């Protein structure tokens, strides 16, 4: 068994499910001002952390070219003064889909090279790279579940389950 291919497959499956939610989200839900964290911001948050945690370390992370400072946070920053960063300029569905494509390419580029027994590379996550990959896929899928539930309850729209993604 090639564990790197398995990890990449599950990243791609979860990213495919996120892509479905983004593509079918009605404009009225995309940036609903009644939501503390609008649909677009949750999708961006999920992609940001896929992108970040694929890197060897925090220092190796280079933000996406259209990244905006603080937009990855769904609540107050984890450091003082623990303020909620403003996110006044929503990302469009096309921009989120472009970031998703970027993250897919990062999965393909980075996952085959990961030393799964190495430390996570992130001081706040005291685990090895293997656990970090599972952690990141779980985080991504948590938000896919939230977004798909939102689509079902607010717009009666469903997404399809994707069990496996592309393996290469």
Q: Can you describe this structure in just a few lines?
A:
The chain has 168 residues and is mainly α.
Task: Describe the model.
With about 170 residues, the chain is mainly α. It has one domain: Up-down Bundle (Four Helix Bundle (Hemerythrin (Met), subunit A)). It is about 50% helix and about 0% strand. It has five helices and no strands. The mean pLDDT is about 95.
Average pLDDT number: 93
What is the ordering of alpha helices and beta strands? HHHHH
CATH topology: Four Helix Bundle (Hemerythrin (Met), subunit A)
Count of DSSP H/I helices = 5
Identify the CATH class. Answer: Mainly Alpha
How can the largest sheet be summarized? none
N-to-C span: 14 Å
Give me the Rg, rounded.
Answer: 16 Å
The CATH homologous superfamily corresponds to dinb family like domain
DSSP E strands, number: 0
Question: Can you tell me the residue ranges where pLDDT is under 50 for at least 5 consecutive residues?
Answer: none
Number of domains: 1
User: How much of the residues is beta strand, in percent?
Assistant: under 5%
Shape designation: globular
Structural class: mainly alpha
Helix content: 40-55%
CATH arch. level architecture: Up-down Bundle
């Amino acid at each position: 068994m090639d564990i790197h291919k398995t990890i990449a497959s599950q990243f791609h499956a979860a990213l495919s499910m996120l892509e479905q939610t983004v593509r079918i989200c009605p404009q009225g839900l995309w940036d609903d001002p009644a939501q503390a964290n609008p649909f677009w911001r949750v999708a961006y948050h999920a992609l940001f952390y896929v992108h970040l945690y694929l890197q060897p370390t925090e220092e190796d992370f280079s933000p996406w070219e259209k990244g905006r400072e603080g937009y990855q946070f769904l609540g107050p920053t984890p450091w003082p003064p623990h303020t909620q960063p403003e996110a006044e300029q929503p990302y469009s569905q096309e921009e989120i889909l472009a970031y998703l494509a970027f993250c897919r390419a990062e999965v393909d580029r980075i996952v085959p090279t990961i030393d799964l027994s190495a430390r996570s590379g992130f001081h706040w996550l005291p685990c090895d790279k293997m656990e970090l990959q599972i952690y990141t896929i779980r985080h991504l899928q948590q938000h896919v579940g939230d977004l798909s539930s939102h689509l079902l309850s607010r717009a009666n729209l469903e997404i399809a389950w994707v069990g496996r993604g592309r393996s290469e």
